[in-house]
């Protein structure tokens, strides 16, 4: 199918990234039971492993997609040496209902190099198999056992309303949409609306062929709700063949408010952020025409987060500007780090205020790295995530890092401490030494106050392996962007990946995993402005020159002085970006993770699809990994999806598809986003 090619609006050029670093899943597990095992049904001695090293080609699978991952199992003795011809059994727990299968028999024997492999593939023939779930794979050899919990995710539902503040007589239309990880609709699922307590407050509607269900909520329903406010979540229910029921809730709620005018209540205290579980006094001024309307009366309070004093007497009754006024003070205490909506009710009058709650003290910490296997002398980011007791990330907290074991000889961390960012993440760089190590030859610890590593966990420390790479992966990108031929609200961007061995020879028929990772999102807007640049004019003089163009980071000229204006903010994010997808060369959607096979030249082509209005508002990592000679090799390319020049009015500045960020325009905070 022909497609129209566009030149990039942003100055992107074709690049080829060559990253000689190694990574991926896998590790050594020891059960301290190294004897051979005898099968009761066979009198011959069975050879068993003392250690199992299991590697995954990727960490998760896409619900609803034709997805698979390779499991590479190595049978070893206690010293890390191979045990050839060892018996290995691979099982899928609850195989009948898991929606997955293996490419081999369950009972296998490792080869002369102690290796055996199988492929775990998804089966997607029913609606239930489009749902998120976890597949547990059990690998055993004699008394040695390892369980792998492989998430199948990406299925999500969204909820939206055509209005949030309802005037008398209005009706809100609530739309629920369910899509699996590759964008296929969840058709025929039971959809409903539930309130904040989980109670169903609507009829149950089956989703249509587009995975959509629409609910109508009238003004009267919201008006009769507590404090004239109704918080709604979307819910999808799918019943499995074995009578199991899978429910998915939306991560965000739609909050409807019935507009009821009042002039009797006013907040007089500040709403500066307060920590979790730290009491804060909030004072409201109450107004009335007579003293009798206030004397002996109370104000009722409620909150969506934590606690408030539920009922407070009105005090300090006095006259101001011809009106009688008094004060009502409630004590608020937030339970989790988020925005609390607090209501004050006096008679029929209600006022709502928003109070931000900051995280508490460090209680939980986890540590991870970008790569678990790296070459001698190579480096990797080491990231610690710090949370409070309620699971809220804690910013601006010091985290200490130290190496407790390193057999690579001269490995080192870039700095002993780091401060967490707004997402609670502290990052340092580990650089490997010159020597190779066995599995887990490097151990790094992270600490922050009294924070503890949560159970269950394989190890409270980060374990890395230093080994030489066995392949190099390169990714090139086209400088052109094409409108998706099947949907003109999306762009497709072309990429090409290739794999060569250490001698530079192409590796044909090699499986390569490609994944998209949302690193950050941006809020703000583009402006049609006269941007000033300091440049040399035709007469040889240097001066500030004004050029009309689209920009979100530009210079204006005031009082003969340049002034820089920025109208966007970049925010860290670990969230799944639902409008990003990998496509095959034939434009078939493959989700955010897909597997390709290299051709005779050791390469393959693919595309990345994204919504036009998301152009320039996302920062994405494109990760590629492959296993060559039992070693995992990875690379990552970071890019901001560009807009096509043909879709931008560069003459009069009247239109562009990405003029306003889909995440919102409030650049004062990263927390309040759409």
Q: What is this structure, in a nutshell?
A:
The protein is mostly beta strands. It contains 2 helices and 56 strands.
Give your account of this protein's structure.
It is a single chain. This protein is 1% helix and 51% strand. It has 674 residues and is mostly beta strands. A hairpin with a 6-residue loop joins strand 5 (37-38) and strand 6 (45-46). The radius of gyration is 29 Å and the shape is globular. The chain is built from 2 helices and 56 strands.
Largest sheet properties: 6 strands, antiparallel
> What is the strand content?
over 45%
Quaternary structure type: single chain
The geometry reads as globular
Radius of gyration of CA atoms, rounded to a whole number: 29 Å
- First-to-last CA distance: 35 Å
Tell me, rounded to a whole number, the average pLDDT: 79
Instruction: Determine the fraction of residues in helical runs and give it as a percent range.
Output: under 10%
Count of DSSP strands: 56
Uncertain segments: 1-44
Main structural class: mainly beta
The number of helical segments is 2
